[in-house]
Structures are given as C-alpha cells and as structure tokens.
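Recall the central idea of this unit: under ordinary conditions, the amino acid sequence of a chain determines the structure it adopts. In this exercise we apply that idea directly, starting from the sequence alone.
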Amino acid sequence: MKKLLFPFVTFLCVLVSCGGSKGPSVTIVVPDDANSRMKFGAEQLRSELQKQGCRLVEQEAELVIRLSQASPTDSLPKEGFHIVTSGGVTQVIGNDATGSLYGCRELIDNYISKGNFQFPADFADAPEMVLRGPCIGVQKTQFLPGRAVYEYPYTPENFPWFYDKEMWLRYLDMMVENRMNSLYLWNGHPFASLVKLEDYPFAVEVDDATFAKNREIFSFLTTEAEKRGI
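Accordingly, the structure predicted from this sequence is:
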C-alpha cells in the first residue's frame, strides 16, 4: 500500500511519570483539535503503555506515536486506519474519528499488550461489515403483573443492571476491543419510560424521579459510547 505523508498541526504532548520502567520511553502526540475518539484512543494507549512499564515523556523519547486523521482526499476505507513506522516514529492515521481509535487499538491489542514495541513499518486495515454490535433485551421472558405484552417500563426494580454505570463501562470497553460500532437496546415500547409528549401526557408509565434517572443513564450511555465509536 502506498505510504501516506500527512502534515501535522500543533501537538499536545503527554507527560506522565512511572516507576519501574521496563519498556521504552514514549511520547504520544495528538493534534490540538483531536476529536473525542482520538483522545480516548490516546488515553487507552497511555494506560497500556504504563502497564508495560513504559515512561511517557514530553520529548527525547525512544519511541514517538503520532495520531492524526487523514484528509478527505485520502483513500482509506470508512473506519479504516494506516500505521506507518520509520526511525522510531509511528504514525497512526485514521480515515475518520473511529479509524483513529481503531489504529490505537491495533497497537494495544497486537503489540503493546504483548510487550512488543516493534510496530509495523506499513500496515492498514478496516472493518468489512458496516454495522457490528449486540442486541440487549430490556424486557423479560414473562409478563409483568397487571401488564400486557411489550409493557416493560424502565425502572430500577425491573432492570437493576441497566443503571449500573461501572458495568456499562466494562461492556462498552469490551465492544470497542472487538471493534463493535452499534448497540441495540431492544424493547417493544420504550417511549413510556423515555419520552414525554405534550399531546400524550398519559403515555409515560414511570414516575418523575425514575424518568429523570432514565434520561440521565441514556445521556451517560450515549456520551461514553460516542468516545468508543459506538
């Protein structure tokens, strides 16, 4: 594949100290205008490098990792990335925001986590399927007392796991590790728990406190999912 050269704007360099070094010193360079997915990828790189005993420094590092996003004229596939290494500098070039994140995950999953810092000289990849993700049923296998089919209001009593943020973070991390980009929360009639319409005030089937809790957890989910390309 033809090597790509990309101009870099002003970079934000990360300075972190860690003891007991056994890996190389590393500088991670990201653009000032990096999107949330690229920033999340950089955070994951930072975390894994520290686990491997690397020192993250601002300059004069043995290894430099530069993150960037390709210009619209470049021909990388959607959610694709290109990794180019030369002279101790590794460029992770995403075709889009998700591609930048997946390029970071490529380094983590296939090199850094194995203690291997000999990154590929020239490697490109991209997902083949457009939509990839699990479907989670926010409903039950039996009717709730006094309710009919599809009537499963979102409440802490009915679905306690749904409000567990730590569980969701672990699950979303699992999804990005497996390059999933969509999450389906399946319910036959979710609007009674999530939407208030002026013309149909009677449609809401949860109390105000639960409704506010549902809005908050959905806001949390969408924010955390967006960082991970979901």
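The mean pLDDT is 89.
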